[in-house]
Structure formats: structure tokens, C-alpha cells
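Why this split exists: single-chain examples teach little about how molecules sit against one another. For that reason, every record in the complexes split bundles all components of an assembly together and asks for one structure covering all of them. Below is a record exactly as it appears in the raw files.
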Amino acid sequence: MKRTNKLFGVAALFNSPNEIIHAAKVIADNGYKNFDINTPYPVHGMDKAMKLKPSKLGYITLAFGLSGAVFAMLFMYWAMSIDYPQVIGGKPFFAFPAFVPVTFEVTVLLATLSTVIGLLTFMFGFPHNKQPLLDTNYMKNVSADKFGAVIYADDPQFNESKVKELFTSLKSHSVELVFEIEKETYPIFQPKFLMLLLAVAVITSGTTYFVLNKLLFMQPFNWMVYQDKITAQEKSDFFSDQYGMRTKVEGTVASGFIPYPYSGQTNPTETLSNPLLPTKKVLMLGQKKFLTFCSPCHGNYADGDSRLRGQFPNPPTLHSARAREFSDGMIYHIITNGQNVMSSYALQVTREERWAIVNYIRVLQRAKNAKDSDIEEIQKGLINASR
Amino acid sequence: MNIDYSQEIPVVEGGLKQAHIEELISKPLDTKPDKKFLIAISISGSLLLIGAICLGLTFYYGIGLWGNNQPVGWGFDIVNFVFWVGIGHAGTLISAILFLLRQRWRTGIARFAEAMTIFAVMCAGIFPAIHTGRPWLDGYLFPYPNQNQLWINFSSPLIWDVFAVSTYFTVSFVFWFVGLIPDFATLRDRTTSKIKKTIYSIFSLGWRHSHRNWQHYEKAYMLLAGFATPLVLSVHTIVSFDFAVSIIPGWHTTIFPPYFVAGAIFSGFAMVVTVLIFVRKIFNLEHIITLNHLERMNKVILATGMMVGYAYATEFFIAWYSGNQFETFVFVNRALGPYAWAYWIMVSCNVLFPQLFWIKKIRRSIPIMLVIVIFVNVGMWFERFVIVVSSLHRDFLPSSWGYYTPTLYDIGILLGSFGLFFTLVILFTKTLPVVSISEVKAVADGAQPSHHGGNH
């Protein structure tokens, strides 16, 4: 580092902490403002001797800590209740207790980082490796085991000979003149600097793009995902027509898929007869399947009161005279084949379940249109049961 | 040796002068590595290599190579994670909590303990990352606006963990670096090598020991300590939430947060003592890291060890007192079931052996101390093993009971984490001052003015 002839300050070294405290006190009492004390470690009582005001660093910490807490809480509230609300573990969208840990961590993170960054850059002006005091004999000594005081040339009272006198009177064992460092200037529009900026911009944006768009979607080892088998809609080179999905061989039936001979017909004769007896087991099965597959449109009691509330054409009630007069085979046929807007339920419910549903519909029909004799029957049953 | 505990013991022994302190601490940085160093680094490097190979194979073939099974879905990966995070806690405790309690003796060991915190958290961080099975997708653990337009689940303890561990690492690192700045400046001014000077200049940021800076610096250090203290308690609390928030018997207990924190400090101090015994001997730092330091740490180990023992007892008491048959089964099974061997290793290493520290002679005898703290390390590793594995291996249905046996890959990765830890520790001893130069200077005899406020 080249130095100019311009004086930066006068520095003096002392041997003991007592001497330096005394020196600081005297310098401050003499009215110097721009002076500093350099010690290898913080010496107790120096703040008072130098007449320093208490550090205001805490305010930075407080401001950033609080904003960290508010930001974290608001962000989680927004993400979990507004942007993508999801019920998780039965908690409310704004699950305050569950948000406490993250809020705490973000508060601590922001408070400490802002404290350190504020301390080093805002309060100390670091990094500052071109400070004139650095690289002097004075700095070497105060770094090791000596205690130093320096009065800067820009102090309003500064006078070289007076300051030297003061230091000698304080019994400093060595007084050193520190000169300014020659300033190097760096014009902003230098091609080299512009190239550096460009390189930084390209590298940062490129890396960000790569990480977020490519790296996170990379599959280093993907043999679990991609296997040598044909999935639906996939092309196959094995078959001459290149279709991966095959139609069934003519004259064969896939297991579990017994063909229904009357599909597409409106009235398939009366030949279909109900193979199931209305036992309790069958009726329970029928009820279960009716409630799952039929009730959304036909209503829980087949009144045609759809739960879909007009979003879909309401089907007719199953308690009409026409529906009651349908044979079992006809109802089975409608479930299997579909009718008007109702589609086929052959794939959702098995044949046995369909017959069970038919039986259950009969139960509903009878219950909804009960005669007095039915009530008598029931009362008889109740009396029998109570005996 | 007779010590009068009613008198304050000098922190730095042997009346060392400041120049000597600096000389002693920076000696390893100024000398070429010797044979002992090379042997040590080759051992830890080999362990690291074993871990790297096992990890590479795990990446290639998938975590099917591990011993995890149904019902033991969390095995060595989580055991090691909790173990290493726990080791880290001693560093922050020494550097932050003892700082706030104005324990001046902490200066001799704080730097080293902080470094161990950082290295231990690095080791810990590996495990949840690889445990996800596809570590290249771990970016999704952080909330960033992604293409799926989904946010992470902020009410999940596993996400709290991500925030806790990453915050803990960042804050510990910053705390450590802030402490190093004045030392970098001292090293910058004493070195004769030009390259070293450039490096130290960069890291010292232009520090010039100015009291105008020291004033704010001390304030900052106190603020950081103030934040690190609740942070360190929160980290293991949140790690314990990984278990306690679930509804598995044996994990679903409210005692977990304090129990985990006490255990973390216990294991961390044991690890610090283990490493410091060697460091003070190898680098001749016996006057700075004195026997008194070790004795005090042993007292902390004794105290936290009893807290851990109390927690073990409480768990059993609550299992009986709650009358919950699942809870009772888990704990009886823990002590008498297929993993009884692990449970009794844990109890004897963590509760019985540390009781020897009641005897002053043992507290101050390095060989016995070394054996006990190694037992504590083993015991605390087994504690996590017992918590994780023994709670899982007997599910609610006897049909889904199982037994977990680690594979060679599990063991290899565990060895690898020790390799990483010790490699970093060994490199640290050779590249950075293992004791804070400025802090130790400040507590040496005659370092502070004889009466505060100047000569008046």
C-alpha cells in the first residue's frame, strides 16, 4: 500500500490497561472528538473513559426480529389459508400453535443476520482493508499485547505538535505518524467491470434457472419410474399395428366380464328373473350399494330428490305407478344398460349387487306405499318380538 | 491436588503473558503438519471414504440397502440425525448460555465447542436429506414459489425441523465467525507469509481492534448469545416434536422436549470433553484448557446425566400411572423385550457410569474421565436408538411386529459421519485458532484495569 504525505493521524502505544484508560480519559477531557483507542481485547471501563454513547445496535435487532416474526406468521397465514387452503390433521387453516416454531426460527434467523450484517457493514463500514491504520507498526502492536491511542488529523482541534506533546506527557513509549493511503479510483464504466457485472448476471440467473427448472426435475436413477412394460396409451413396437393397448381376441371373454345379451334394447323381454331371495343379508348389500351408487341422483329413499340440487337433470321418483309395475328384470336391465341420461352401471356394480339393489328398491317401494295391512303386520311382529 | 472451591480459580494457569497466549494458540497454524496430524487425518479420512462409498451406493441403488423395514421405518438415519444434532448443543451452550451467565472459564473452550457445533450440525444435516430417499428433490423442503403452486405444510414437525436445523446452523456459523474476526486480525498482523496475510486480511474484514468497534461488537455478541440461547433450546425441542407430535406410544410424550434438550447437552459435553482431552495434550494447551475446565464440564455431565436418568424414570412412571395399556406395553417391552440389550446399555452408560463423577479424584483424572465420556457418547447414541427403534418395532398388531437389524451400509454411513466430523475437527485445529485469542487475553491475569473507570 502506497502512502501519501498527507497526515492521517498520530498514534501512540501504551503498556498497560491502566495507562490506556487514563490516556483515553485525558484525550476525551481535552476535547478531542475524532480519536480512537485500539486494544487487543475490550478493556473494561473504556466506554466511560472515552465518553461513548451506548450502542444502538439493539434497535436493528429489534426491528428485524419483529418484522421476521410478523412476516413469517403472515406468510404462513397466506399460504395455508388463502393461497392453497388445506385441512391438515383436522387443524384450522390458521393453526396458530403449529405456526409458532417456524415463526420463532425465522425471527431468530432474521434478528441475528441483521445484527451481524448491520454491525459489520452499517456500523463498522466493513470490509475495509484499505484503512490507513492497517499495516502499520502501531497496528501490529495493538494486535498483540500493547494498547494504543490515535488522534485523527480531521479532528477540529488537531495540531500535530500539540498531540505529540500530549502523548509524551501521558508517558507513551512510542509515538507514530500515520499517513493516508494513496487512493485508487475505479471508474464504473470500465469494460472489465461491465464484463464482470454481465458475467455475474449470467451466472446467477443461469444457475437459478437451472436449479429451479432442471435440477429439481432431474431423475438421476429412474429405473423405478421407467420400467420395460407397456402402460396405457403407450406405443408398442412389438405388435404390427403398434398399439400398446390390445382389443380382445374374437370369441373370448375377459375373466369377470360375462357379456350382457340385452344391451342396447329398450325392453329386454320378461325373461330376466331375480335369482336372489330378499334375505336380510341381500337387502343390507342392496342398501349399501343403493346408497353408494343410486342415491346421489335418486335420493336416499328413491324419491327422485337428487342431492345434486339441479346441477344434473333430476331423475323420476321410483315410487311412481310405472316404476312399481316394472318387473325385477326391467329394473336390472335399466341399471345394467342405462336409460335416457342415466348411464350403464355395469362396471361399478357386479351382477349380484345389481340384483340386491333391485331387491332393496322393492323394499323402499313397499315402505313408501304401505297399506294398513302392512302396519298391522308390523304391529304383530312387534308384539311377537316383545313376548 | 487440593483445590479451594471458595476462591475463584484463575482461568488461565501458569501466569501466562498475553504474547505467550498468542504464541501458544497460533503455533499449530504456523508449523507444518507433523506425523501425529497425518496419522489422525488418514484415519478420519478413511472413515469418511467408507461413508462416502456407502452413501454413493445408497444413492445408486436406493435406500433399500438399509435395514429399515416394516414396521421400523426410521432406523439409523434418524438415530444418527438426532445424535449429531445433540452433539452440537454443547457448543452453543458453552458459547452462549455460559456467556450470559458470565462464566469466564468458558473462554478457553468456547471456540472449539462452537466449531464442533457447526461440524456436528453438518453431519446431522446429511441424514434427513438422504433419508428422504431421493435427496436431489430436497429443494422442495423449502417454501419457494414452485411450478406446482404448492406450499410446504407449515404445520408439520418435519418442516419445523428444516427451519430449526438450518437456522441453527446459520446462527452458529455467524456466531462463530463474529468471534473469529478479531483473531483473524491478530493473525494477519503476526504472520510473515504473504499468502496467509491476504487470506487473514480478507476474513478479518479490516478489523483494527478499535474500541469504537469493540463497544458495538460486545453488544452484538451479547445479542447473539441472547438469541442463540433460546435457539439451542428450541432446536432439540423441535427435533423431539418429530416424535412427540406423532401418536406412536413411546413417542407421544410431553416430557420429550426437556428430556431431549438435557440429553443433547449431556452428549454434547461428553463429546467436547473427549475431543478436548486430545487437543490440549497434542497442542500443549494445558494452561489454557486447564483441568479445571474439564472438571467443570464433568460436573455439567453429571447434572445433565441425572436429568436424563430422571426422564427415563418419569417415562416409566407415566406409563404405569396413565393406565394406558399401549404405553405400558411399550415401556415394559423396551426394558425386557427384544431390544432390552440396547436399553440396558443406554441406562448403564448414561445414568450409572456418570455417577462416578461425584468423586473429585475421578472428575480430575483424565484417563478415567475419558473412559466415562466415551461411555456417555455410546449411551446417548443408544438412547436415540432405543427411542426410535424400540418404539416402532412392535406395532399395535402382533402380525406387524418386526426386528430391525442395520445393514453394513447403515454402519458404513454412521462411520462416515464420524469420519466427516473428525476430519473437519482435525482440519480446524490446523487452520484456525482453536481457542479465542482475544477472549483468553481478556481474562488473563492483569488484563483488565486494576480499578474500573480509570486512574482517578
